[in-house]
Design a protein that fits this description.
Number of strands: 3
Distance between the termini: 61 Å
Helix content: 25-40%
Strand content: 5-15%
Structural class: alpha+beta
Order of helices and strands: HHEEHHE
Radius of gyration: 25 Å
Number of helices: 4
Length: 102
């Protein structure tokens, strides 16, 4: 027999003969933009401490946010930025990051 595939099991999904029930079960459609926020998982939002906010600067007229990664990593408490995450950010990102917020 060699490298010939062998069918080892068969599962019965639906015996009704209705393709609609199979389509409903397995079909997944991308959520429409108008379905927001119900199309997304719940987001946990909370206020940032002032020390974290102080590491950011909005550049008006340019739609940019400057983020001082080094200052954020050194000053943020563990609830804002866990120490392991802070170490990774400092090791892999430049000390200042410019974000486009358009």
């Amino acid at each position: 027999y060699g490298d010939v595939p062998i069918l080892r099991s068969v599962e019965v999904l639906d015996r009704s003969g209705s393709w609609d029930s199979i389509a409903r079960r397995f079909a997944w459609q991308q959520p429409r933009p108008q379905d927001f926020p119900l199309a997304l998982a719940p987001l946990s939002l909370r206020m940032l401490p002032q020390e974290a906010v102080d590491t950011m600067a909005l550049v008006t007229g340019q739609n940019k946010l400057l983020l001082n990664i080094g200052q954020l990593c050194r000053s943020a408490d563990a609830q804002v930025l866990p120490p392991a995450v802070a170490q990774l950010l400092e090791a892999h990102l430049p000390s200042h990051v410019e974000l486009d917020i358009s």
